[in-house]
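Render Phage tail-like protein in 3D.
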Amino acid sequence: MAAPTAGSGNEQDQFWPLPKFYFSVDIGDQTDLPFQEVSGLDIDTDIIEYRHGNSPVHSTIKMPGLMKYGDITLKKGVFTNDSKFFDWISKISLNTYERLTVVIRLLDEQGQPKMTWSLTNAFPKQVTPTDMNSQSSEAAIETIVLAHEGLKIEAA
């Protein structure tokens, strides 16, 4: 099989990987939120090992078990009068909290989604405010970690 020939790079084609810096995040009814970083879009499967007693093979067989989804970490700049994440996590009380759908889209040059990750029943697990350092000139970044119950991936 012949190797594919890359295009000119003037526009996205099938031979150039998508850049990872152009993305959008929707949480519930809030759309296109300005996050600096998204990580943790992991899917993992438990492995079930089994060997029946009269098997002539002296090792176990491996079967797929339950699916597990990693926690999603979102990082964004701290802005004046913006406490949405702290307000959301502070509402958690005795298993009564708002679960939302989170949609993360990887975009092409024209802002069109090419890959979409949809999180089901997401809720905040941890909110970490920025660290503060009088010797630093960096932007203040806060972190929110979301737990969820399912991940659906779609390619455009």
